[in-house]
Amino acid sequence: MTTDAAPAAIIPPPRAWDSLLWTVPLTALWIWLLYAQPVLLESGLPALAARLAAYGLISLGAWLGLECTSLTPSQRRTTWLAIMVPFTLWVAVAWSAAINGAFRTGYSQWPLLPAAIFLPVIICAPLLLLSKRVGQLLDGMPPTWLVALQLYRVVGSQWLAYWLLGLLPGLWALPAGTGDVLTGLFAAPAAMALATGTAEGRKVAILWNIFGLADFVVAITLGLITTPGPFQLIVLDGPNVGLDGYLNVLTPAFVVPSSILLHALSLRQLRRRSRSGARDVAI
């Protein structure tokens, strides 16, 4: 039997780690470039590119995923618009608020930035996790997509560059930046392991999702208790690049809740596939 004819289920799992041979050097080179050329960070181009990439990949992935379903063209368009119109409005509101400084410390007596992080998750998670149409989308979409998509998380390496330049305290930048980088780096190996179709590959993807969510728990918690405001418990000495300013604030106001919802959808998809596989075995 030739290699081309071999079923995906017997692809050697060690090959899942091959992607690290190019993602790790590229990420290290990117961190070095940001450190060597601080003007890149000052320009905001890396942050802008990450936000646009996340929005573009999510919108494209939703459309391509719908193409994999048995829905009619009309149903696909309606479903895509039902997802993308609220998503685009949320992006527009967050972007406009960031430009106008609404998330800056002292702008309002209300904790607007924590609200921007948690409200989209609180509102959207039940809708996405309980929707039958979204379930059809997840059943048709390859499970590797929602995992590999978060390769963009390596852009969190900018926080490590800020720390190396002495612009961010290590108490927040090191765990937040390292967690983002590791989540992004291991997205490809986890997706490749999942592509084997084995129970072990599914477990790898589940663990990856849990790690990615844990990264946000740590980063958000440290951010809340170290940032001036009603939740501050630790007052840090030293420089702070101003994470509440435009464009950096779009990470917690847009990318973080988007990524949390992607993790939730991936776990729902893996659970549905696991149940489907169990039923097939029973039959």
Helix and strand arrangement:
Blueprint: H1 20-36, H2 38-43, H3 45-67, H4 73-99, H5 112-130, H6 132-140, H7 143-148, H8 157-164, H9 170-185, H10 187-195, H11 199-226, H12 250-282
Brief synopsis:
The chain is mainly α and 283 residues long. The chain is 71% helix and 0% strand.
Q: Secondary-structure element sequence?
A: HHHHHHHHHHHH
Which regions are unreliable across 5 or more consecutive residues at pLDDT < 50? 1-12, 278-283
State which percent range the strand residues make up. under 5%
- Counting DSSP E segments of at least 2 residues, the number of strands comes to 0
Mean of the pLDDT scores? 85
Report, as a whole number of angstroms, the end-to-end distance.
Answer: 29 Å
Q: Helix content range of the residues, please? A: over 70%
Overall 3D geometry? globular
Q: Figure out the total of helices.
A: 12
